[in-house]
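Q: Predict the assembly, please.
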Amino acid sequence: MVDSVTDTGLREQAFLVLTSLAAEPQHGYAVIEDVERISEGRVRLHTGSLYAILDRLRETGLIEVDREEVVASRLRRYYRLTGLGATRLAEETEALRRHANAAAARLRRLDAARQGGAA
Amino acid sequence: MTSLERGYRRLLAWYPAGHRAMYGEEMLGVLMADSAPGQRRPGTRETVDLLVFALRARLRAALPGGRSPAWSGALEAFGFVGCALAAMIALHGSASGLAYHLALSGATVRAALLAAAWTLAATAAGLRLRRTAAVLATLAALGQAFAVAQRYTTDPGTMVTNWWLLVLTVAAAGSLVALARPGSAPAARPLSVTSRIAVAVAVLLAAAAPLTEPVPTFGAEVEGVGFVVFTVPPPHTLWLPGVPFGDGQLSTVLTGLVLLAVLAAVVLRLTPMVRRRAFALAAPAAAVAVVVAGFFNGYLMSTPRFDPPVYLVAPQWIVLVATPAFVFAAAAWLIGRHERRLASGALLT
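A: Predicted assembly structure:
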């Protein structure tokens, strides 16, 4: 499942949605645009995927409805991060940072070994 | 309304009603905002995305995951009681074998292992150790399936008469696995500690009943052999005419009645929403027992008369496999319909 929240960690798309909502409460279309911006154009959520993620995040208590507005006769619902969502995002960010640091350290060693071998 | 909006509305109609009520208008707004200027029809990728996630939402709504607390409660209650009953049946068999062994010969190791597996699974379920219970119940159900399947080549009739037990144990293990899935809703402890202890005590009493029964023996003149003493293994049943059973049979009947009374009391203490779902989980095994008793009687009577025995044909297999699935789907659908009617009635009053 691309969008689920599991015990082992947030999937990338759910992580990006939480990151988007960490800035401020946002409505669905703003989340799509923000996720594209955060991922530097790599991830463009479709509406079906987005609402599957929002539904799951809301169900697990990581986000909640902030407010609703009607703009040009259309319902616009804003979502915000809950306290639990902020904690989960912080934990996930820390885990990703540790993994990235470990990967970077190993790549540096690999690079050094290659350069040593070439010399 | 533009043709684009109509197209999106048609696609959104594939979502279940609950999802549409919650997100439908909001999703339509996002779809319209995300459309290109002058666009007249939904794009291919958007269409596929909506259809895929609509199907997934429908599957999630239809299957009893741990999404709703009522289903979680039913899964927990049925998982525990189902494992406890499977343990009781397996322990009863082992106790019968043990009593028989004391008199004549052999309690099997396999029966004892199965009894131990179900007892451990029921204990973990009773202690609400979700993952441990799920793993143990799955192992026990696999053992049960192996034991049932192994009989098929030599004694397919016994496999058919035990099919309900296989369905019950698979449903119990499946309930605990569904409950242990990540993201399942916490159940509000459907069974109190007292209820769980009462079920455990009643199950142990019923399981141990054969140990209290005397092992009856009787003699008969066998032609060409002489006078032979026969020993009847417990549990003793009424079908052997003329065999003196003494008090043993009474203990089995009494402990069985106690177990039934305890189960009835426990079921009555469940909330109506949890109780309905627990019945839906138990319905497949009950339906299989009814179908086997009603439609497989001729087969069960005839197959032991042949060597090799008569094996099941494809339509019979289909009935055995499809009945539990169909009954569960029908029960889950009826519950949904009943509760929607209750909810709409409450809104109108």
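The CA atoms of residues 104 and 110 of chain A lie 10 Å apart. Residues 1-9 of chain A have pLDDT under 50 and may be disordered.
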